[in-house]
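Hey L., structure's done. Input below.
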Amino acid sequence: MPSFERTIQHFGVTIDSLRYYDPCLNIFINAKNKDGSKKHFLFRRDPRDISKIWFYDPSLHQYFTVPFANQQLPSMSLWEYRKIRKQIADKGNEYINEHQIYEALTEMRDLIEDSSKKTKSARRQAQLQKHMLKVKLS
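Output:
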């Protein structure tokens, strides 16, 4: 799984403009290194499902699951997310928010479902017409 190093803010962690949050991050919010710089932590994300990331707790040496900060966002793949961001940007939106992502994802999935239904019904209709033609010729 791809890894990322990020700082932990009061709102959680941001990766690719998506925010993630879980209470397990609270003790690391605004953590600093000995030299005073912000401390970076290790996160991993499965590209097939970016609705959650895994946070490596350096003190416990254990990974914890951290979901989207906005729990209304459905799970999606990195491929779907990139396609959605491109669609939104192509419409002229410079700043992309989570509501736009949700709307675009719902629209894209509905379109795919409708297309597959139409394709299935078109195949059935063509098969039925072939069958009816054979029956008429017999």
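The first strand starts at residue 3 and ends at 6. The chain has two domains: 3-67, 78-137.

-- N.
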